[in-house]
Amino acid sequence: MTMVAIRLDPASWDGIDAQTEALLDHWDVAVGDRVTAGQAVGGAVLVKSNLDLTAPAAGRIARLEVAAEQTFGRDAALAWIDTSA
Question: How many domains in the chain?
Answer without folding.
Answer: 1
